[in-house]
Specification:
α6 runs parallel beside α7, α10 packs across α11 and α14 runs parallel beside α15. By secondary structure, the chain is α/β, with parallel strands linked by helices. The chain has 17 helices and 17 strands. The protein is globular and about 70 Å long. The protein folds into two domains: about 220 residues, 3-Layer(aba) Sandwich (Aldehyde Dehydrogenase, Chain A, domain 1); about 180 residues, Aldehyde Dehydrogenase, Chain A, domain 2 (3-Layer(aba) Sandwich), CATH 3.40.309. A seven-stranded parallel sheet has the order 10-13-14-9-8-15-16, with helices on both faces. A five-stranded parallel sheet has the order 5-4-3-6-7, with helices on both faces. Strands 1-2-17 form a three-stranded antiparallel sheet, with no helix packed on it. About 0% of the residues have low confidence.
Amino acid sequence: MVDVPVEPAGVPRGRAMVERADWAARAFARYDAHSVRRIVQAAADAGAAHARQFAADAVAETGFGVAEHKLLKNLACSSGLVEAYRDTDFVTPRVRAGERIVEIPRPAGVVLALTPSTNPVATTYFKILACLMTRNAIILSPHPFAKQVSVAAARVMCEAAIAAGAPDGCIQVVEEPSIPLINALMTDERIAVILATGGTPMVRAAYRSGNPALGVGPGNVPVLVDSTADLALAARSIIASKSFDNSVLCTNESVLIVEEVVADKLIAALKREGGYLASPEETSALRDLLFEGDHPTTKWIGRDAAVIAQAAGIRVPPKTKVLIAPFDLVVPEEMLAHEKLFPVLGMVRVVSASRGIDAAKAVLRITGAGHSAAIHSQNAQTVMDYAAAVRVLRVSVNVGSSLGSSGIETNLAPTMTIGTGFFGRSSLGENLEPKHLVNIARIAYNADSSVPMPSFEGLDPWSSPSGPVPAYPVASNINEPASVTRRDPIAPEPDELREEIRRLVIEELRQIIKG
């Protein structure tokens, strides 16, 4: 008798999801711009209608952040995203007559999207809409700590998209993550690209999968305030940004670097905005509470400043939003110089803007290369010198970095996925946006103008679906509606598999800000 190898639980399910998505992607790739706009708008409207509910649900499930701030992100990544790209067409061919080239947008196909626990709904919304705008099918794999709200958010958008004419199977979500299932999805050759947003282990696994991957590295944002800065604006921006969603955005300020001549005035302004300056003893208590050896204590991620202060034995005013912890040297051994996904801001004083630039470079050598930096200054030369020196690919000026670097309060592309480029060992060097999910096929005519080139104006190879798209064919003994996903009929994973998932999740959370 020949032994037939038994595949791990979840592998057949992964293959089935990809097959279904591939079927949907091939149908979706023929849709015209009008049909795509209708589907995108319907999904975005549904997401916006549930934005407040899902913001509260995300805080309840994960314990991270502030519901009102998550609401803002959810709206920015639903109706706000549609508005940002309202005049951008990722579908219709474009004629560049002067160059004798015709460009035809071609969707990637099936996108596997890994989403984090810190920004679960906003990232789910963002990646779904980016895929719908570009006619891609998407399979979402949510972080286990946020799977309930992520599945609910995906379902809401899926149902709206299908009702508006999207093909069945174009949005699916893993309801019960398991190591074999996620591995089966990541390594399937029919996956066109993996969008990895989360901890370092997740991103590295995506790059090792053998499929194209767009991953991001950890942040550790330095913010320099020089002697020319508008101190009131700087203080207001820094406190609002650092306290936004209790610092779970990877674009939040991590280390404040202030020129000595204005340091006391800035500290006074920070206190007026809700900052609390810790004494040396209190700084030591915060360091002991928030870090275990060389990594952060994950239980404090996304918690209120007052809660952290109380746990550290520090009495703070009732309206405290951010704890400011001064230290002397930017060195790897100083944990307050590392990324902090909680409302605690490290602070160092420098004698000049030039020394401040050096300090910012030192912060980014610890972790955060390629990610983000911020500066408050009225001096264009200082801003230019800073941006040219720090190894990041986005520098927010006179604005909070949390929403500035993510494109919500600047004119950068609005995103929940920050590319760190070559500095951060990433294949993506800018804010992820829909254009990164499209390749362009180019028709190139002879450059000699004497060779005739016919007019392509008004020609379009795509069309509007003629009637409802047939549902994905399933076996007759499976009773299933055209919805987000089917539940895996395979029995639950054994205890050792659940323990392995738990171990990897804990390791990922530890790596979120360790780099």
